[in-house]
Amino acid sequence: MKLGELKPASGATQSKRRKGRGPGSGLGKTAGRGHNGYHSRSGSKRRPWFEGGQMPLQRQLPMRGFSNFKFRNRFQIVNVSDLEKCGSKEIDSFVLKEHGLIRSALKPVKVLANGELTKALKVTATAFSEAASKKITDAGGEAIVQ
């Protein structure tokens, strides 16, 4: 047996009824759509949210909450432990990009305090968490906000 020779079991399928092919077919003239109304016309489809002209549920319920999605700040996250891996003493977004720690040197970068830092580094970033800037300064480095 080959893939091209596969067929459904006999009796599993029926041929499609040809609509609008005269009165003898049983589906002539209006082709089973009735005489008038929305569904007798082309382009009609019953959408799952349509409630027959009643005020839909999603419009009856009050709006809740607020989404600031459009204007939110999307930071690229770097941890303090990742800064340790960079070879240079001065670290900015271009150095982080070279080491593969961020995707783009042009987008904002935030440094978080996960991990430990032993070297004194001069780190330039868009934002720092309080704990991260404290760890950098405690190690003898400097946290510069762009």
Concise summary:
The protein has 146 residues and is an alpha/beta fold. It is built from 4 helices and 6 strands, in the order H-E-H-E-H-E-E-E-H-E.
Keywords:
elongated, three-stranded parallel β-sheet, 146 residues, alpha/beta, 6 strands, Ribosomal Protein L15, Chain: K, domain 2, 4 helices
Q: How many distinct beta strands? A: 6
Tally the helices. Answer: 4
Strand percent estimate: 5-15%
CATH class of the domain at 73-145: Alpha Beta
Order of helices and strands: HEHEHEEEHE
Instruction: Tell me, rounded to a whole number, the average pLDDT.
Output: 92
Percent of residues in helical segments?
10-25%
Q: Per the principal axes of the C-alpha atoms, what is the gross shape?
A: elongated
CATH architecture descriptor text of the domain at 73-145 = Ribosomal Protein L15, Chain: K, domain 2
Could you tell me the radius of gyration in angstroms? 33 Å
CATH topology of the domain at 73-145: Ribosomal Protein L15, Chain: K, domain 2
Which ranges are low-confidence, i.e. pLDDT below 50, for 5 or more consecutive residues? none
- Kindly name the structural category: alpha/beta
Strand order of the largest sheet: 1-3-5
What is the CA–CA distance across the termini?
69 Å
The largest sheet, given as strand count, sense and whether it forms a barrel, is: 3 strands, parallel
Characterization of this structure:
This protein has 146 residues and is α/β, with parallel strands linked by helices. The chain has a domain at 73-145: Ribosomal Protein L15, Chain: K, domain 2. Helices cover 17% and strands 14% of the residues. It has helices at residues 57-60, 80-85, 93-98, 130-138; strands at residues 76-79, 90-91, 109-112, 122-125, 127-128, 142-145. It starts with 56 loop residues before the first helix and ends with a strand.
